[in-house]
Give the backbone structure.
Amino acid sequence: MDLHNWYEKGLTPDEYIETLEYHKDGFSRVYDQFTPPEDEHFFQSIKDKQLRVIVLAEPWCGHCMLNIPVLLRLAEKTDMPVRFLLRDQNLELMDRYLTNEKRIIPIFIFIDENGNEVAKWGPITDFTKKFVDGFKKDLPPKDDPGYDEKFKVMVKQVAKSFRENPDFWNNSYESMKTALYNYKP
């Protein structure tokens, strides 16, 4: 299936947001609080390309809670339509965008009006990865009886930072901008 057809079968942003449960408040907070910087030249250059975005995501994903609201704000500034595909229901596409041989999300696939991929972003920035890895290094091995509890605590701490620290939002925005600027048709 070509990317245009994948895009066409995707959920709208409102339909995707309706699937959120655990991260709905965090998602809304990032969306409500994040405003892209004034960058009319960049916004116009993206508008001129008439791009669309396919987002591979899942409602339970903390990295999606952080990055998708930033993408939606960027999409609003650039008139870029967005459609969502749930990763676990669309493995054929997901498997084309593996990270280190794993199905890590979110993945943003930017396509032109003909359905050609022009840029890809995701799943997280180096800044975010370094932050999360700082927490992961303190986790016990997965077979340790205390692992699950400590992992849950870590997830809560990381999600709180994603919801409340604008440095993550701004870093994601700049990373997406770089991915789009680096595209050479």
User: Anything to note?
Assistant: Residues 147-164 form the longest helix (18 residues). The longest strand covers residues 52-57.
